[in-house]
Specification:
This protein is α+β, with helices and mostly antiparallel strands. The chain is built from two helices and five strands.
Length: 151
C-alpha cells in the first residue's frame, strides 16, 4: 500500500514549492511597479501637473543663488534674507536677518538660467498652498536655496 502512495505523495509535495515560486515571482513584479499616485520623475514628456501630489501646487521661485548640481527630485529649503535697516549696505552697524520660508520642497525642474546671465535663476518646486503664499509674499527679497536631501 505504501509503495502505491509514494508516487502520489511525491507529486503532491511539489505543489507547495511551485506555489511558493509563483508567489515570489508575483511579489517581485509588484515591487518593481511604482506606487499608485507617485509622480513620474525624469520623464521628458511629463507635464508639470503629473509631477504633483495631492494638495501640492507648482511654484516658480526666482532665487539669488542656487547650489551647483541641483536636480529634479531634490528636497530643498528656501531662506529669505533682508537687512533689518532696509538699506542693504551690509555695513558693520546693520544687522542682517534671515527667515525660513519653506522647508523640504521637492524640485520639479532644476534652475533655469538666462542665456545672457542678466536675470537671476529660477527653480520650479512643489509646495503646499501655505508655503506658496509665504514664498509669494517674499518675492521681492533675496531668496537662497539650501539642499535638504537628495533622492
Amino acid at each position: 500500500m505504501f509503495a502505491s502512495m509514494r508516487p502520489m505523495l511525491a507529486r503532491l509535495s511539489r505543489w507547495p514549492r511551485r506555489i511558493g515560486a509563483l508567489a515570489c515571482l508575483l511579489l517581485a513584479v509588484a515591487s518593481a511597479l511604482p506606487p499608485r499616485g507617485a509622480p513620474r520623475l525624469h520623464h521628458p514628456a511629463t507635464r508639470t501637473a503629473d509631477l504633483l501630489f495631492a494638495g501640492e501646487v507648482a511654484v516658480t521661485v526666482v532665487v539669488t543663488s542656487t547650489p551647483d548640481g541641483l536636480h529634479q527630485g531634490d528636497r530643498i529649503g528656501l531662506l529669505a534674507g533682508a537687512d533689518a535697516d532696509g538699506g542693504g549696505s551690509g555695513t558693520a552697524g546693520s544687522s542682517a536677518t534671515a527667515s525660513m520660508l519653506a522647508d523640504r520642497l521637492r524640485v520639479l525642474a532644476p534652475p533655469i538660467k538666462d542665456a545672457s546671465g542678466t536675470d537671476p535663476p529660477s527653480v520650479l518646486v512643489a509646495a503646499r498652498r501655505g508655503d506658496a503664499l509665504r514664498i509669494a509674499a517674499h518675492s521681492g527679497q533675496s531668496i537662497f536655496v539650501i539642499i535638504d536631501q537628495r533622492p
